[in-house]
Amino acid sequence: INKYYKMWFFSKMCESKTRLDGKTVVITGASGGIGKETARDLYARDARVILACRNMEKTNKAVEDIKNNPPSWMTKDEYKNNVGELAIYSLDLRSFKSVRDCAKNLLTNEAAIHILINNAGVIMSPSYERTEDGNETTLQVNYLVADIEFDDINLERSYAPIRSYAQSKLANILFTKELAHRLKEANVHGINIYCLHPGMIPRHSNLTSFPETAALPLHIGRQTIVNTPKNYGMYPVVFHIWNQKKILSHLFFNKMCTSKARLDGKTVVITGASSGLGKETARDLYARENDDMVRKSTVTFRMTKDEYKNNVGELAIYFLDLRSFKSVRDCAKNLLTNEAAIHILINNAGVLMSPSYERTEDGNETTLQVNYLGHFLLTLLLLPKMQSSSANCRIINVSSAVYIFADIDFDDINLERSYVPFRSYAQSKLAIILFTKELARRLKEANIHGINIYSLHPGLIFTGIARNSNRMFRGAAFCVCICDNICVKKLFFKNVEQGAQTTIYCSVDEKTANETGLYYSNCGVSTTYRKANNRHYAEKLWNLSCRLLHLEPEENFSTFLKTVSRQML
User: Fold this and answer.
1) Whole-model pTM above 0.70?
2) Domains of the chain by range and CATH?
3) pLDDT tens digits, residue range 212-241?
4) CB 546 within 8 A of CB 553
5) Choosing from 143, 425, 505, 520, which is the catalytic residue?
6) Which of 115, 155, 241, 272 could form a disulfide with 25 if both were Cys (CB 3.0 to 4.6 A apart)?
């Protein structure tokens, strides 16, 4: 009891005389309170201190205050001659867009970032509020990397101010420990992670019930932040918050497809193969002596240039715009007319998240049609050709691990009443997995053999689909913001070659030849969770998709495919 009493009510000061010459420090929420006092101290140690804040007027006043008033341990004369630099960046943690923009500006303008202090926060809102990104405000502003109340992380059903605040702070501690653990296991050195309790401080006193007599002054509250602890928090514990039932375990590992399978005489169709994952997949399959659909590019990692010139397939290009069902039908018609067989179909094309609601010419929300409905139609139109091509044909559907955050709104699948970019994207990726499972089931029940269906998560990758976005992972914006450092990128992201490996694995690996309807990640079968396992959902989505395409689902699947071809071609 005495130990915890001291922790809360005694005011130990940081005695370190360490200078920070040439160092750059980023502090969030530094326009007032603990953030401003921390900035004042580090500025006095000759650091370049960046105040990342929401209120620019208040932040400019804070800068003037910091410049004119030294910390308690320094005289004014010393302060004038031995200080660093101050800079201001706009950051509103209530908006993921603002977080991304701030990170982008920091990465562009700062040569290095040595210290990041995630200080900003809100304490307790008396009423339930959501951010523009759809998250409970306290959770998003204070912390948004993982779940604690796993079934109701935003506390929609059970909101209480103290519960929301306490949950966000527990998440900060668990995130700190888990990130330290993962950096250590990845052999990423030179980045230490800390979490702390600053003490009871009379900031936001209008929002709390804490008496000011029990609180610490702001200049004392900053001391734990300024001090550098000797215990770096390298805990070997794998926390439930990050790795619940291994849902996200494949996000940070880069397993490569080792299969040497050739594709001589095989024809592969890849959508969205002009760049990114599609192009890298095409590069690999082209080197396996196949017919493929993408422009020829440079050498694959397994081959010398001489081998590449002499042992490759053919390339062809077909026009396909998934925003138009007419374009999908025309592409399918051209493929069926010009290609003798189709052995592998890779539904890779996709869009990430449109900031505003957009409809296609067919009346569907753009993300839903490009990522899912267009591929649903293309697959149905090409299935008869694949059925007659040969045994062991494969259909690969590129999904994403973000499906775990999704639901299918059957009453408003185009999200006219409730559009949120992330929700739209996650829904489309869940739809892809459900489609994969339902198609595999229908093929099996119709005794149609020799066509296997796969869905997959490629990993976290910087590609054209996410050129200006870290929305793929809650916390990626934070990680990229640490520094423009190859080690950080290596820990959290795959390059496109690595990201294409699971697609290639599902396309060629011998072990997958007898598997169908499964979900893959990191070149292996992965477990699906939540709505992705709901058979009723899959069947209901199939029927709704047919209605959106003006098709009538048939009990006999072979008859249904003939009807689709007759109506659509």
Assistant:
1) no
2) 23-201+214-238 (3.40.50.720), 258-458+495-567 (3.40.50.720)
3) 333 334 443 444 444 443 333 333 333 444
4) yes
5) 425
6) 115
